[in-house]
């Protein structure tokens, strides 16, 4: 592990403040004068001047007001990218002063048990030793991330990640609970077996088309194109109510035709799957350049239908991972990047949603899951250093630490994920 951490570089400084030049640029982008920004955040114009000169730093509450006034995220002001947050960044993003955070924590049982105070929380955020008898109790300290997550309004796993960035020389504060995994695939398998062969093909092809559409939506995001809400794009076009020689076939119809099971229109097979609660159908009206206004039939998978299709296709149904573990799918992505070693993984080798959940700097929808910051796109310079010839995915320092801390648990839970080809994870930390 030591050589891996040395390769990926040192951790950044623990405390973040606004970057004066960035503040000035964001204010100008928003079209605000210093006086107008001062009025909106409740300070004097002179104080805004001090902020932009780097002579003062706004309080968390004023930082939140500033971000609102400038129509940006707090991260844009502090320069902290998604997936690089430390404990102090989470508190500032929540708009909490040190004293207010301590006041809220003291209302919790663990806050009182640990004797939370401003000096102790400050020491925690600065990566310094926190004094106190209960602070040497691993079980007690391990309950604090959940309390911090509640007052900061983020998932507990994000607090654990920020904790490990803040205190890189310590073990992770939380160990996953050892609980038996419930096998929920039995009923899904039974439902799959109750379908006839035609219905099985239909359900499987709808699942594959949904995944293809999901990848297309991800590509649109990466190219900064508008993306419909999932509730809309998950309704997959199945058929147009017009002669096929005029309007052709939808992509889903073409898939079914290649399998030799295509029904005209919605068809009896789709209706049978809908009666079982595996699919939902609906119609709308679209314009076709030759046929004019035509009725379109769309089909959407239900959660049950997705589980049944996955079981029938032999795919493992993922359990909700214990905090702070990754799902089997994301752990598999991590191992692929780790296996690539110092050279990194080709940028195009990762597709779908993985970068939004694991990549530094990625921003999902506002209410979506925050990025863990375990992988990053690292530029590859030309031989003469004159320009960048491409990018590769590499593990970040926190990604390496997370994998090493929880490697044994991952191997126990996801034995089908091969970790033998990643030598930088073969040795766990003491």
Automatic annotation (TrEMBL):
Key word DNA-binding present: yes
Pfam family, one: HTH_3
Residue ranges occupied by any HTH cro/C1-type domain in the UniProt entry: 23-77
Keywords of the record: DNA-binding
InterPro entries xrefs: Cro/C1-type_HTH, Lambda_DNA-bd_dom_sf, TransReg_Diox_bact_type
Coiled-coil annotated spans: none
Region Disordered: start-end pairs: 169-191
PROSITE patterns: HTH_CROC1
Protein name: Helix-turn-helix transcriptional regulator
Native source organism of the sequence: Streptomyces polyasparticus
